[in-house]
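Support request, please re-run this one:
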Amino acid sequence: MTLRDAIEQYIGFRRALGTSCTGIAAGLRRYSRHVGDATDCDRVTDTQAADFLAHGGRNGSNYRAWKHSVLNGFYQYARARGLVARSPLPAERPRQVPVAPPYIYSPDDLQRLLEATRTYSKRVCQLQPETFRTLLLLLYGTGLRPGEALRLVQSDVDLDEALLTVRQAKCFKLNFNSLILHVVYFQ
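Re-run finished. Output below.
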């Protein structure tokens, strides 16, 4: 079986389990193109796999660690189904750069941030101070991730029902198309 066919079979398997695997699919397809789509999946060399892991990357070693993890999942699937005899991946996973621990703002911290929005001077292509203040309150009050908040559009807000619809939320991994939050707001 070609590498491309085995990867497409794996992607179909992951999707059948209800996983949204857009990033994984894109990474595996890049790997297939790098090695050669028509290459037999059991003939990928250790050098080809190591070369793919070493090159390219946003975030340096974190990206290499992500690629290793994605390929490791694919090769575990392929080995279990007899598509490959062994994985060509290096045994040692690339190290990740430590991520800073999350910080939870206290009410005093939030108050200082909100006061700072009053003196925030708008430059070209920046948020209006009122928009910035609203965004801070939205993030703090709902627990949304910044990307989720930035993807909101006016039709996602229903002030009469106090509902906020969040599309493309991270919880999409759990097979939700959208998340509806009941928001209590003050006049």
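The chain has seven helices and three strands. Residues 3-80 form one domain.
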